[in-house]
Amino acid sequence: MTYKVGLLGLGTVGTGVAKIFQAPAGRHPLLPEIEIALVGVRSLNKQRDVAINAEIVTDDLESIVNDPAIDIVVEVIGGIEPAKSLILKAIANGKHVVTANKAVIARYGNEIFTAAKQKGVYVMLEAAACGGIPVIQVLKQSLGGNRISELTGIVNGTTNYILSRMYFEGADFGATLAEAQKLGYAEADPTADVDGFDAADKMTILASLAFGDRIKLEDIYREGIRSITSADINYAKELGFTIKLLGIARRVEAKDAQDRHLEIRVHPTLIPIQHPLANIHGVTNAVRIEGDPIGEVVLSGPGAGSGATASAVVADIINVVAVLKSLPNQINQLMGCSHEHYAKIAPIENTVTQFYARLLTHDKPGVIGDLGTAFGKHSVSLNAILQKNTIHDGLAEIVVVTQKVSELNFQQAIATIRDLPTLHSIPTVLRVI
Amino acid sequence: MTYKVGLLGLGTVGTGVAKIFQAPAGRHPLLPEIEIALVGVRSLNKQRDVAINAEIVTDDLESIVNDPAIDIVVEVIGGIEPAKSLILKAIANGKHVVTANKAVIARYGNEIFTAAKQKGVYVMLEAAACGGIPVIQVLKQSLGGNRISELTGIVNGTTNYILSRMYFEGADFGATLAEAQKLGYAEADPTADVDGFDAADKMTILASLAFGDRIKLEDIYREGIRSITSADINYAKELGFTIKLLGIARRVEAKDAQDRHLEIRVHPTLIPIQHPLANIHGVTNAVRIEGDPIGEVVLSGPGAGSGATASAVVADIINVVAVLKSLPNQINQLMGCSHEHYAKIAPIENTVTQFYARLLTHDKPGVIGDLGTAFGKHSVSLNAILQKNTIHDGLAEIVVVTQKVSELNFQQAIATIRDLPTLHSIPTVLRVI
């Protein structure tokens, strides 16, 4: 007897999945017991990078999720619709689902997992965050004995590629983005990546698993990398930092249980060059997990691409099949979702962190004094201040790094500084980890 | 209903395990359904770092593995006996086993897993290699879709601590070992660590899971770090390398299926400073896995210690309990062992790798020519040659790094060089990755 998979989508990821099943030698011994029985595509005539028997290919995707012979529906179409409806229909039909769709899970995870629980089926999502890095299973199972306090990650390959090139080559954002687009590392419309939407989707999923609560995507503070210039990268270097788009999720303890909450944010971040995420370059993703009693664990690997994502999809498929083989009518609690409550997430104003700011001022005596007074007035202590030579048109560039301060105090100080007559502009404000 | 654990051993790891179950808040929701029902210790009077109800503590370890109420036996005693016999008796009594015992698994895994298969019980070993790093489950499940081609690891914390300090402080091996012993990072008898025995045990386990075959410990080539001097570390630095005790396991392909084999070795290794394992310092462990289609994944974290190892033990316990809860009489194939054959492992002579050698020669004209001729005669091409100023007593220090050559050719060249009248001695020979 074989277990029958209905594969929705034969793009990059779907092709990768099909190729693994076509060459099972040297892989997990369960693979030959699994069959890709049906493949759903948008266009039947498109040239494919993998040979699939035409008889099992259909453009009627609904027929796959409705087919009683299918045990597991693998959704690798991407995008919200029709993916979301197909997932829900598959669940309604009692099928297990494996999905790589971070956008759907981050937005409709609640609805999907509630439906899955009612029907007693699995919804597996290893491929939905960080591609090939096995971080989902690690959070769900391997670190189950731990109380996770922090999860920090480079979870978007496109922005990490751009920032790595800016760091090593001194190039500016626009030129590097254009190059990344030419090389296929960035989409024609790069918004999802460079503005942090994709990273926020993934952090919703990762934080939910790390902290055992449901997370609302809209509660996550999000900021992209468009404002980063080569000047910022150079100052960061000089100060012993690199700049990465980080997802940061932290458990914030409090004496009063009611005050305990999470902090989840996605923004470009200065990180010290000795930090374990500082040397993750190019499209590579990495996640650093801190917990009690384990301490620090770092996982890195390819965050996207055909092979890496397919590896994660296949891991989920064999996990489901292994359970189906032994316990067809029971749910393994480690593989299901046990979250019932939404986490309390603090607004960004409550965050306590260090800041980096680059300011352009009129080159007049007393400028530094004015800045210092404004910061001091709002209880913002400074860690470092760099003043470079006048750059042009009588403007001086000043870079400050604060000590740990509340976001609210810092923003108030910045508002005060914007009103200083000596100030020209504040091109960049970044957080520091 | 709770699931009953019999804990054998209340040392560092056992204490860590007990502490996790005593404070389940914020950890996996399955924990409160699991009870440490019995604890076996060698001495009932020893002061412990954790409060355990005296009524459940016994020094009759056999009584625990024979107790019909116990579902899972957790063996964290260490050492070969009585651990091995207790594990086998627990299996014979139909109990699932969780063990952190790399020495027993590396030597008697065959017997133990065969017995477990016959009785239909799990033997879980996440804690037996690399402590808290969840590499066992990753190999068994998360990377199941991949054909693993190489697994390379820093799998011994003691030697990595020593080599890191030698690298950063320029200290010599003996002094650093003494310091490590004083700080508790090395045992009074450091043999198991510094001579690579512990690393070889772990590589037996990791390679078996990566490549899906049983591995005989005695087939693994093993070399420790006692010969490394600060001079070698400095030369390595100058050449762009660091020195680590690496476990290296590789699948060697061949056209003829009969010629396919594995290469598994543990030895101090020069690794380029950009290599993902080069910046793993101190007692941290890390494993780099290369597979198709995933590419490269790196996992790092604490390789030993109470909390990290306990984290791995508890992960195994909840994995077993999750399965027991859903259906007690079936085996999940992903958690069992499916290996039936021993791998074919090549002798070290067949290895093809780069070498580093430090030679002391009499400072006479023609020395370099003599060396070059000797290497050339055995088809050993050189990548780099460094000759420093005469150091003392008319001796010159020469360092060579070869291109990739067969171990056999290299050793023959070294034998020829040992006979050269201009040679004084060859203090160090190391391999390069």
TrEMBL record, chains A, B:
Pathway membership, UniProt: Amino-acid biosynthesis; L-threonine biosynthesis; L-threonine from L-aspartate: step 3/5; Amino-acid biosynthesis; L-methionine biosynthesis via de novo pathway; L-homoserine from L-aspartate: step 3/3
Top-level class of the enzyme under EC nomenclature: oxidoreductase
Taxonomic lineage from the root: Bacteria, Bacillati, Cyanobacteriota, Cyanophyceae, Pseudanabaenales
Identification of the protein by name: Homoserine dehydrogenase
Catalytic function, reaction form: L-homoserine + NADP(+) = L-aspartate 4-semialdehyde + NADPH + H(+)
Binding residues for L-homoserine: 187
Keyword Transcription: no
Highest taxon above the source species: Bacteria
Protein EC: 1.1.1.3
